[in-house]
Design goal:
Layout lengths: L1 H15 L12 E2 L10 H9 L1 E2 L2 E5 L7 E8 L4 E8 L2 E9 H8 L4 H9 L9
Parallel strand pairs: 1-2
Antiparallel strand pairs: 3-4, 4-5, 5-6
Helix pairs in contact: 3-4
Length: 127
């Protein structure tokens, strides 16, 4: 009887430690392992969206006539990746300060703020 309990106990431990804790987190990337450069925007978005960040946020952009979505991801809480979806495509900015993100979220016009303070700044350059 005790021998069977030991076998059941060890099987339980093996199941708990088999990496099956949470399949969703199996391919997550830690902030320290995000590459400095990417070969494509598709690769950059894929890596960023699969990474664990200290801070991530998004804003409802439905009041904009051409901005369809905006998200911010930060490892440090000070600066990070800004992903903006527009009628013309998806754009990624790197090393954007969190205070710029916070100002974007509260701007009277997302489009005017983006064009004045973010566009052509904080660019993510490809390899």
């Amino acid at each position: 009887m005790i021998k069977h309990l030991h076998i059941i106990f060890f099987l339980f431990l093996a199941a708990c430690n088999s990496g099956g804790s949470n399949p969703e987190n199996a391919d997550r990337i830690s902030c320290g392992h995000i590459p400095e450069n990417f070969s494509s925007y598709h690769e950059a978005i894929s890596v960023i969206e699969k990474s664990d960040f200290k801070y991530s946020d998004d804003v409802n952009t439905t009041r904009s006539s051409w901005i369809r979505g905006a998200r911010f991801y930060s490892c440090s809480g000070n600066e990070g990746y800004f992903i903006i979806e527009t009628d013309n495509g998806i754009y990624i900015h790197k090393n954007m300060p969190v205070h710029v993100w916070n100002a974007f979220k509260t701007a009277d016009s997302f489009g005017r703020f983006y064009n004045a303070y973010i566009k052509n700044n904080y660019q993510l350059l490809l390899n």
